[in-house]
Amino acid sequence: MKLKFLFSFLFAGALTVSAQQGYKDGIEYFRADQPEEAEIILKRTLNDAATDKAEAYYHLGQIELQKGNVAEAKSYFDKGIAANAQNPNNYIGLGMIELKNGNKSGAEAQFKAARELDKKSPIIAVEIARAYFNANPATYAKEIEKNIADAKKLSKKEATPAIYILEADMLAPTNVGDAAGYYEMASSFDPDTKHPEAYVKYARTYFTVNPQYSIDKLKALLEKQPNSALAQRELAEKYYESDRLTLAAEQYGNYIANPNHFKKDEIRYVALLYFGKKYQESFDLAGKILAEDPGNIYMQRMQFLDMEAMNRPEEAVKYAEIFFNNPEAKGKIVPNDFTTYGDALQALGQDTLAAAQFEKAVELAPEKVALLKDLSGAYTKAKMYREAAEAYRKYCETDEATTNDIFMLARRYQNVAATEEPDSPEKAAAVENALKYVDIALERVPDNATIALTKARILFVKNNNVPDQATVDAYLAGLQLLDKDPENTTKRKSDYVNAYNQIANFYLNQKDIENAKVYFNKFLEVDPTNDALRQFVENLNNQK
Hints:
Elements: H1 23-31, H2 35-44, H3 53-67, H4 70-83, H5 89-100, H6 104-117, H7 122-135, H8 141-155, H9 161-171, H10 176-188, H11 196-206, H12 211-224, H13 229-241, H14 245-256, H15 263-275, H16 279-292, H17 297-309, H18 313-324, H19 335-347, H20 351-364, H21 371-381, H22 385-396, H23 403-419, H24 425-444, H25 449-462, H26 469-482, H27 488-491, H28 493-509, H29 513-526, H30 531-541
Helix pairs in contact: 1-2, 1-3, 2-3, 3-4, 3-5, 4-5, 5-6, 5-7, 7-8, 7-9, 9-10, 10-11, 11-12, 12-13, 13-14, 14-15, 15-16, 15-17, 16-17, 17-18, 17-19, 18-19, 19-20, 19-21, 20-21, 21-22, 22-23, 23-24, 23-25, 24-25, 25-26, 26-28, 28-29, 29-30
């Protein structure tokens, strides 16, 4: 199973949030280009006593403007002015609407009203420059440049991080390297960490170039703001995106403990706990989410995956059936659902039902040819040997098949031959195929004792489980390969026992007692504690 298979379907849950740092968290999310999360926090904290409603309305208005909802945006900006007419931002918001409507003079009037409220604020100049940039960077290039210049003049002794952040945002689409540099400057001129978005945007911009730099930047942010949900979440995301799933799970655990986390992140955390083999914790958290959202198919899926991973097949089957019977699962089932369900059924001895699940997996994703191997294995467990061989044959016709797969196909046909009626056409055909593929494998790997001994066993089956000269020759060839490593008499004792036994019995059947004695004695040498064999060999040795 690929580690990331779950995350293609774990983001459909509703988002909920409980306020901890209040509306400021919403503003941080907005500045970090996450308006959906920002809107949730701002709306839920709007009536909190600590909320600056003018600021909250300004950012809610910007969110609506991004959606194209001009009337809703104006309503929020008007409410912001009503809440605090001395806050300049909502006038800037109204100016944004005028720019969107093509009324530059109307926008300038609103921007002028904002400046009049605080003529020394570089932040107002930055916000106006951003308003022009968001409206049309080409059309308003001069206005953007002028307002950035004004902001820099007003900054005087200390550079304003917001200036560098805006300049970085302007560069990011075309010049990632310079943008990252500006984000880094913004963070370096922000000792009180009033602009965590600089760290977050640096991490996103630089991640494809050097993931570790991005992670280190977010760790630095988290050291300065240990309770920041944004910092915790972004670091967890970057760990995940760089395939550090153990660290991602640990960091998500810290983040999930923050009341300002989102429900969709709990869903991801359930999967990360699963990947971290913390199956009970994953199951319990999924249960908590299901208590609030009983029809959540993703959590139903995780519960049955967790139960199967904990080797609790009866419960795995129970939860699998809940998942599969959910009407919402239609169209969202993936092959792993069927194969995991099949594994649980196999653990309960329901091999035929299990094979049917593997069939469904192949039917759902025929392009995933490796599923044919899984299906063949399921058929073998169900003693459906013909079907097992056919499924493996189809796999071996693909480009993914290896020499080992060719060898396994030979063994699948060996199973068919061993279970067909003696001297039947079906058995003959199976033997022919088994020998065909084992010879191909031997040609590719001539020094492989396992393949050579398998050929001997196929010949044994061909002769209705009675060793003949061809069987003996094949066993002798396999023994010659085994003897190259003296330790094989211990490591592969069972192979020696089987080979010597079959060869000795061949000679016994041929009434060649002397050769029979030779191989029964070799048999006893590798199996000296076999008292019945010792007695038989002693009796045989006494024969003249």
